[in-house]
Amino acid sequence: MKKQTLNIVEKLLADLKLEVINPKNLIFPQHEEVAKIFCRKRKEKFVLKVQLTKKPSPAFLREIWFHKIFNNKLRQSRYCRLQKLKGRGKKEGLNWLLLEFLEGEKTGNVFAFDKKFLRDKLIPHFLDFPFFVSKIGKGKRVNRILTKRNGDFFLKSIDKDKNKYVKVLGQGDYAYVLREFRRYKNLLNRYCTTLTHRDNHPANVLWGKNKKLIILDWSDASLSNFMYDFTDLWLHSWQKRSWQEKFAQSFDKKIKKEDKLEAKLFFKLNLLFLLPIEMHNLQNEKMVNWAFKGKISLSFIRQAFHTHSKNFNFAKTL
């Protein structure tokens, strides 16, 4: 990081009267666009996020916008919590965001939930998240800044990542996925109205001391179909199939009767989109060893994911 940028960050910390908990937080890799600094003021702890480039990234602007609009909403949820916004602004051209620090245990890694969190009594907590997020997003002016993950977006992404899909699925199944998204493109465009987290893998979901889920990192928040976040949570619980089934059954009981048909269809389409990418990411042996600390082999993961992908009639799960 340029010395000039570091000086601005240090001035900001001084202005906010914040003490850095770990001085190593002020050493950032060259490719980092946003610095995440853990700091404190007396006994209170905070997370300071600072854009390291004068030109702010759309992702960072989305996160600032999200916390500004929904700061107090998600705190009303029975089972979920959001970091409280403590301040935001700009220091010599650098955007910054100050959030409260919430202590909690990660529920897993970017690939999968830890099995100890896949317990039946925690199903209401995980169900509350997609329902509550979609609820607080209604009636807000979200179109201006959020990416629309609609039918056009899915088709463009699938075409862009063709090599990944073909490598995982084969040419025949890739063609099937493409046909399904072309077939339902207009429906996906019409239902692209729900606020979604979009990146709610277990590393972004903490188990808090107050027995609530803490949802982190809203930089990828977007508009999509109302099944997207549920599908993402369901997919990352692949280590425990019995829990997945109970999770889907509980979701089915909560959803409105008139929405059930679309729910099954969107669940299937979301999995067709997400599953091949997840499987492709899991081809990296080093990443797997890092994530699971040698407890799970790459062959085990491949077998588990191929069990999910033997046929694409995922809708029968609901």
CATH class of the largest domain: Alpha Beta
The amount of helix comes to 40-55%
- Say how many strands there are: 12
N-to-C series of helices and strands: HEEEHEEEEHEHHHHEEEEHHHHH
Considering the protein shown, what is the CATH homologous superfamily of the largest domain? Aminoglycoside phosphotransferase (APH), C-terminal lobe
Count, helices: 12
Number of domains: 2
Give a quick account of the main beta sheet: strands, pairing sense, barrel closure: 5 strands, antiparallel
Classification by helices and strands? alpha+beta
Q: What name is given to the CATH topology of the largest domain? A: Aminoglycoside 3'-phosphotransferase, Chain: A, domain 2
C-alpha end-to-end distance: 49 Å
Largest sheet strand order? 1-2-3-6-5
β-strand percent reads 15-25%
